[in-house]
Amino acid sequence: MLMDRGVLVRWNDEKGFGFIQPEKNAAQDVFIHISVLKKMARKPIVGDSILFQTEVQNDGKRKAVIASIEGVAVIAASATPRSHSHIQSRNENFNFNNKSKAHSHSPRKSSFNTIIPLLIIVAIIIFGFKQYQEFNEAPAIDEVPVLTNEDIERMPMYETKSRTQATATPSFQCEAGKTHCSHMSSCAEATFYIQHCPNTQMDGDGDGIPCERQWCS
Predict the structure, then answer these.
(1) What is d(CA 67, CA 50) in angstroms, rounded to the nearest whole number?
(2) Distances in Å between the alpha carbon of 1 and those of 53, 124, 157?
(3) Which letter does DSSP use for residue 25 in this model?
């Protein structure tokens, strides 16, 4: 779009406006405001050559809507891309650093997550092995002889009672002061005492059967 050219003949720096005398149609000056020159590297001064486009206002006067100072650089257009490029570069560096940190930490996390399950498995194996050793080293329980019906029938009456009670209560021990039948609780206990404990007085006739009236009758 073609631009008109003119000379800035008046300028009020405090209020930010002035007037251009165009090369063509010089009979009417053109109003110009600082807002249309905001992209310039410096403020306008009287005598500057101005390139401009105008529009006619309601009062019939012309006003510059697009303008530039001839020979003066435009800085606003170049400042924005440079700033944007700088910000983008910083963002890219930030993202790259974050990715590098994440990548450097990931092998540590991976190896840590691998070690924990292995330690748990090893602990379970050791515990199971110790339990197996303790089970094998446990002393075996003495077996109690099993009497058949024929064995019971062949035994004398007192011996049958003695074996039966001995099987039910397999263990006795000699206690001081227990020497008479009144101290006994069964034929088996009396038989145990006359066979293993000294000074018993429970077999008066010496036939090997104690307490015939009380327990082994």
Answers:
(1) 7
(2) 9, 87, 141
(3) S
List per-residue pLDDT tens for the chain, 217 residues long: 688 999 999 999 999 999 999 988 777 899 999 999 988 999 999 999 999 999 988 888 899 999 999 999 988 554 444 545 555 656 666 666 666 555 555 556 667 788 888 889 999 999 988 888 887 775 554 454 565 667 656 655 555 455 555 455 457 889 888 899 988 989 999 899 988 998 898 888 888 888 888 888 7
Phi, psi of 63 (to 5 degrees): -135, 135
> Are 30 and 52 within 8 A, CB to CB?
yes
Which amino acid would we find at residue 203?
Answer: D
Any idea what DSSP says for residue 182?
G
How far from 173 is each of 59, 177, 184, 195, CA to CA, in Å? 137, 12, 12, 11
Helices (H), 73-156: 76-137, 149-154
Q: How deeply is 200 buried, as exposed, middle or buried, from its count of CB atoms within 10 A (0-12, 13-18, 19+)?
A: buried
- Domains of the chain as residue ranges with CATH: 4-76 (2.40.50.140), 147-217 (no CATH)
